[in-house]
Amino acid sequence: MRLVIARCSVDYSGRLNAHLPLATRLLVHKGDGSLLVHSDGGSYKPLNWMSPPCTLTVEAPDAEAADEGIVELWRVTHAKTGDALLVRIHEVIHDTSHELGVDPGLIKDGVEADLQRLLAEQVEVIGDDLALVRREFPTAIGPVDLMLRSVEIEFAAGAVRHVAVEVKRKAGIDAVEQLTRYLELLNRDPHLAPVRGVLAAQSIAPQAKTLAGDRGIDTVLLDYDAMKGVQSGTPTLF
After folding, report:
1. Is 90 helix (H, G, I), strand (E, B) or coil?
2. Who is most buried in 24, 100, 209, 216, counting CB within 10 A?
3. Facing residues of 163 across strands?
4. Collapsed DSSP state (helix, strand, coil) of residue 159
């Protein structure tokens, strides 16, 4: 990757035409050939750019351009569209190159799979005297995130034997509807019924919470950091 801070103007031609007047900017030329033009603002978004596949050629200015103070011309051309980015450099303030190597990519933390895994290891968050049957419990309409069972040896008539848990980062009405369909199917199985439903999420929309309560489904707010042991805090059962 090459990082250049320069006083420059930039012209884009192709599907549209755009012009950046002379100013001090950061030019980022990446290993994939792309060029990004940044100002000292605008967060991550460049003022202009050329995405790959493209090629950059460096040209010396002609006499007229040199008289205008231009010391170097960067011409970036897209291989498929023919769009072009022309950078007229008047002064190079900083110029460095760095070999970054292969990037492993973004690893997201706190996705639903992480929540499901942690909750499977900490089923006491859902309730006492429960044990994990399995994750991704299969049904004819898709898997339930977690299936739990009561560890009680004897059950009173109508006592809950199993708990179906749907895990979300953000739970809305759709999540309640999804769990409702699972429960309707699971409660037809005499080996499982009666099955109680629990919607567990980091955040639950008020409408979803109301609908869940109306359908006899419990809701649990999950504290992801606490479950990871990062900080104290207990998820709340409503």
Report:
1. strand
2. 209
3. 148, 196
4. coil
**End-of-domain residue from the set 57, 73, 97:** 97
Count how many domains the chain has. Answer: 2
Distance CA 46, CA 227 (A): 38
Distances in Å between the Cα of 1 and the Cα atoms of 26, 32, 96, 229 are 13, 9, 8, 38
* Number of alpha helices (DSSP H) and beta strands (DSSP E) in the chain: 5, 13
Alpha-carbon distance of 132 to 166, in angstroms, equals: 14
User: Which residue stretches of the chain have pLDDT < 70?
Assistant: 106-110, 153-160, 230-238
What is the reported pTM?
Answer: 0.56
Q: Tell me the two tokens of residue 192.
A: 């499982």
Q: Please report, for the domain that includes residue 35, its CATH number.
A: 2.70.180.20
Q: Terminal CA-to-CA distance of the chain, rounded, Å?
A: 52
pLDDT tens digit string along 171-192? 999 999 999 999 999 999 999 9
